[in-house]
Design brief:
By secondary structure, the chain is an alpha/beta fold. The protein is built from 13 helices and 10 strands. The strands form 2 sheets. A 5-stranded mixed sheet has the order 2-1-3-10-4. Strands 7-6-8-5-9 form a 5-stranded mixed sheet, with helices on both faces. α6 links the parallel β6 and β7. The longest helix has 31 residues. It is globular and about 60 Å long. The N and C termini lie far apart (61 Å).
């Protein structure tokens, strides 16, 4: 090879190396400019199968793919909707009742996705009490959480089954099933996909009366919530967060056992003393995450009208002065804008 050709080859190699170095530096600068955005999520309770899709997405790196650093805020004493409305969390796990109640105050939150498509809760009694209808609950003791919407729901369900809807209400300081089993109360409001399964696993026989079978409007709950301010200022971040979250719940919907495994692995040892409860709960909830023929998370406008109307009609929604409201802007309670 001539000296000229050797020089040409060497020059080409040097130029290629320089170009590669420039490209690497450019990509490095681009990555530095696109550092992950942090998003905080407030839990409504200790980790459970309502939250599976979030932990699945986190474990599989799907938030990373959306350039998001997800921080999960454990449940403490402050409700998730308060943390979200005050800006201490970007998103949270909330309930339809909380969204409706907050809308009448000065710290509203908005539902951006339905975690479970339909209501899976029941009124539960001890099987040994031989309660054969909700009318039999007249004069009994209800163990609740102290929320204003509980009494109207219980009262109307009992009336719809032929009773007077007259009962004593107390606030329990333990899990509802524990209060029921210890005979501190006569009936409680439970989630079939967790407490219902938990009772069976501990051989505590209960009788369940599904809420929606007793004239209470159906609704999707729990929900993923955010604040109007976050919607206004962080819409792109919320969109990317939901992109990953949708993938997580879709995986959990179609792979219940693997999803339950990821939920358990994502949390510290001891979070789930009964791991089989997690698997059984996940098998129950996975097919109930979405309505047939609809994508996960999409919210039904009718649900966001019927149940809130029921709450308003029964004086379960009050303003900042504690006075019942007589109307709400139902469209402000939810949005599907962050879902594909």
């Amino acid at each position: 090879m001539s000296k000229l050709k050797i020089l040409i080859v060497i020059s080409a190699i040097v130029l290629a190396g320089a170009a590669g170095l420039l490209l690497a530096n450019k990509n490095k600068d681009k990555n530095q400019d696109q550092q992950k955005q942090k998003i905080t999520l407030a839990l409504d309770w200790t980790p459970n199968t309502n939250h599976t899709g979030i932990y699945v997405a986190k474990q599989n790196g799907w938030y990373d793919e959306e350039n998001i650093e997800l921080e999960i805020i454990p449940y403490a004493t402050t409700p998730s909707d308060v943390l979200v409305s005050s800006g201490q969390a970007d998103v949270g796990i909330g309930f339809t009742e909380g969204v409706v109640s907050s809308s009448a105050g000065d710290s509203p939150v908005v539902s951006i996705a339905a975690i479970i498509a339909n209501n899976t809760s029941s009124i539960a009694t001890r099987a040994s009490d031989n309660i054969n209808s909700l009318a039999d609950l007249d004069g009994k003791i209800y163990g609740g959480y102290g929320a204003p919407y509980e009494e109207p729901v219980m009262k109307q369900a009992i009336k719809n089954d032929g009773g007077e809807g007259e009962f004593e209400q107390v606030v329990v300081d333990t899990a509802p099933i524990d209060a029921l089993e210890s005979k501190k109360v006569d009936f409680v409001w439970v989630y079939d996909g967790w407490e219902g399964i938990e009772a069976k696993k501990r051989d505590f026989e209960i009788k369940q009366f599904p809420i929606v079978e007793y004239g209470i409007p159906d609704y999707s709950t729990p929900n993923i919530i955010t604040s109007p301010q976050a919607i206004s200022e962080k819409s792109d971040l919320l969109k990317r967060f939901m992109n990953a979250t949708v993938r997580g719940y879709e995986f959990a919907r179609t792979n219940p056992d693997e999803a339950a495994k990821l939920l358990i692995e994502a949390n510290p040892a001891g979070t789930f003393p009964d791991k089989e409860l997690v698997y059984e709960s996940q098998r129950y909830l996975s097919p109930r995450y979405q309505q047939e023929g609809k994508a996960w998370g999409l919210q039904d406008p009718q649900f966001w009208r019927d149940y809130p109307e029921f709450m308003v009609a029964n004086d379960a929604v009050v303003d900042v002065s504690g006075n019942p409201v007589d109307s709400l802007d139902f469209n402000a309670l939810y949005t599907n804008q962050f879902l594909e």
